[in-house]
């Protein structure tokens, strides 16, 4: 009689799952930091993407050697210029796009990710292209408005996703009362983050979408859509303990409207559609895609024959076997900032989780699994600020329970200033996790 194969637990309750997520997150963070450092005036976007993917592959090859598990890139390195909303990665065979270079002080979006055993982490950060002028000095004007709006809107959204009462301290009665509070609807969440953006004379990019993540899946059954362009785009997914989400924030210096431009889509992803492709080139291309990338996004430049891939994907897209990501920009060509944080919520016994730059929703709050580094707000000088009292109160709240407050730090409990609290929180969370 054949032995039954034990079903693998891919939830966040399994320490092995957490370790895989954590390993993928560490790789994503390391490569993000490297690519950010390479982004200087005059650097070619194509070269940055190629170097980023090469480093991803090298770092992924170092982990889980000899293990019979899949591992690879969960999102290719993309570097999106000023007004681009979607991830951008040019091809070597498109001469004009391959020549695209970074401009001084423009806000660019860097997105990439790694996966271990189908457990993917994706992170996106917005940085200003380095020059001698801004290398060490403060950022002011509209650039500062954009960066602060994206930062605080993202921090607010993460807090709004925490289940009511999860982090409430006090008596059991107080905890039950807090847990019974009604969750904010997606309409309310959208209105609140828009209020933050408007505080800096910015707008939330329409259709900014956060997705539930699962094994081999980055667009799951639940989603949160901010500033939906129409009624059909609305959603009502809510984050629960045990979930892993890719939380996205998009902010524009304009009205937040977007447009699809006439430019070849170079980013694709396999769908669940099964179709008997007719052209041999299409079947060959799909076979390589399945083998190399599974269900994760990829760039055509990652395939062995880039020119052949351009032809091979046509039938795949037409028959819905592949989804192509259209190239979308701000409608008014205004600068756009994007952030993407992989977060999760886990229900577990204390002592298993260490907070890193990647996030999950846990019994102890939001665990940031892969996240862009927090900005130093003191370096951004703006004459604008958030004045909404309800939003300021929410921003004062932590995103995770501090274990230190129960023990050695109980006697030395100091209140922090609202803005400072948001900035220092990642450090507080990491200390909390280590003590747990």
Structure description:
This protein has about 425 residues and is an alpha+beta fold. It has ten helices and 17 strands. It has helices spanning about 15-40, 45-60, 95-100, 140-160, 170-180, 185-200, 280-295, 305-320, 390-395, 420-435; strands spanning about 70-80, 105-115, 120-130, 140, 205, 210-215, 225, 245-250, 260, 265-270, 300, 320-325, 330, 335-345, 360, 365-370, 380. The strands form five sheets. Strands 5, 6, 7, 8, 14, 15 and 16 form a seven-stranded mixed sheet that branches. A three-stranded antiparallel sheet has the order 1-2-3. Strands 11-10-12 form a three-stranded antiparallel sheet.
Number of helices: 10
Q: Summarize the amount of helix as a percent range.
A: 25-40%
For the largest beta-sheet, the strand count, sense and barrel status come to: 7 strands, mixed
Q: Supply the helix-strand structural class.
A: alpha+beta
Estimated share of beta-strand residues: 15-25%
Euclidean distance between termini CA atoms: 44 Å
User: What value does the Rg take, in angstroms?
Assistant: 22 Å
Number of strands: 17
Mean pLDDT: 86
Which runs of at least 5 residues are low in confidence (pLDDT < 50)? 346-358, 405-436
What gross morphology would you assign? globular
Order of helices and strands: HHEHEEEHHHEEEEEEHEHEEEEEEHH
